[in-house]
Every structure is written in structure tokens, then in C-alpha cells.
Amino acid sequence: MSSYREDLAFINDDGFSDFTDGTLPGVLALLRRAGVRNGLVVDLGCGSGRWAAALGGAGYDVLGVDLSSAMIRLARKRAPLAHFETGSLLNAKLPACDAVTAIGEVVNYQFDPKHSRAALTRLFRRIHAALRPGGLFVFDVAGPDRVPAVVPASYWKEGPGWAIHVEVDGNARSRWMTRNIVCFRQDGKGRYRRSEETHRLRLLDAAEVAAELETIGFRARLQDGYGRFRLYPGMRAVVARKPV
Predict the structure, then answer these.
(1) Cβ(128)–Cβ(242) below 8 Å
(2) What does CATH list as the number for 6-144+204-241?
(3) How many CB atoms are closer than 10 A to CB 224?
(4) Which of 12, 51, 68, 187 is the most exposed place for a label (fewest CB within 10 A)?
(5) At what angle do helices 117-130 and 206-216 cross, to 10 degrees?
(6) What is the pTM of this model?
């Protein structure tokens, strides 16, 4: 399944950065309140590096991982002091670290064909093992209520030199959702090229995820947002701490 190729990576960074930018202050505050004021943060699904740049500016070391090579190229330009790797979060090497983040429905996306509920559990266990005592795992999940009340639903958005059409389909009972995305981006000659991607998400019950994290050894709680930033309908934030 395609994963943020060049045009969609550019459009996402240029036209949809309000989500990432909105979450930054709240997630930074979570880290500081937990006593994680420096050290290494592993950012899974790092995208175009906006969070990595903010972390670096706040004094943290950063390892960013993303399956999209186009996103990684953008991230390296935005946060040149951070380290980035192209690959799946499911098998990314996790060094000893002080925090792990996965912001923006990262754990829901089915880009890796090996993604499964069991694979996600194995990832959670590896994160717990990699975190130092007192370390924090902060992420959000899209739940069944993320599916629009009437499907398919669609929207159109334009920006300087680009446009995007997204059609959303899904089934809350079966816990899946897809976004069928058509991008139009202007080339250097003033013409527009078209590209398409389909993103499939496995929807997760946040309470079930939190309970599983507790079983693994975390202390987990759910939130409706990060600081003052409220998550979109059907999303919950999970804040899990490894006990000291």
C-alpha cells in the first residue's frame, strides 16, 4: 500500500500541518511534567520532521522513523541535527531512550503488510523494554467513532500550487476506515500532475489499548487532546509511563 509519496508528502506538510503544530506544546508539557527534560526521543511515524525540529529546539536528541522516503527527505531538511531512518515502525530498532512518540494515528495505519494487532502488541512490548525507568510513551489512536456518520464522505482542499480530494469510507463495527486520496500538484512548467493513494486504518478501542499497556507494565491514561489542543472526533491520546 502506498505511503505518502512525493506529492502527498509535500501537500501534507504544506496544508495539513495544523494538527502537528497544535499538538507540540501539549506533548512537550507532558514530557517535562514527567521529568523527561532531555535525552533521546524516538518519534515513530515522524513525517516531515516538524515534531523532531521542535524537540531539538527544546534540547532533546531525536531519532525519527517513517516508512515514507519522501517524508524523511523533508524531515532531514527541517531538522538537520536529528537522525532519521526510513522504515516501518513495526521493526524499527529502538535504542535505550527516554520517550517514544507516535502522533497522528500512526499506530492505526496499515502501510506495512505485516501490520496486525499482534504485531502492534509486540511493538508495545519493545517500546517498554527500550524506555528507561520513568520514560514516556505518548501516542494517539483512531477509534471506531472516527468513521463519519454517513459514508462515503469527501472533502476538497487547495493550496498554492496544489489541490487534494479525499474520500473517506469505513465501518465502525468492523473497525476499519480508508482514505482514498487524489492529489494535484503543479510542476515547474505550470502544469498539474495527478497522483493517487489509498490509506487503510485499523481502528482501535483506546480503552482496550490502555488496558493492554497496563498488562505489559506501563501506567497508562487516556486524554481527549494534548494540552489545549483537542483531538479530532473519534481520536484519543494515550499517555503511558514506564514506572521508575
Answers:
(1) yes
(2) 3.40.50.150
(3) 10
(4) 187
(5) 50
(6) 0.96
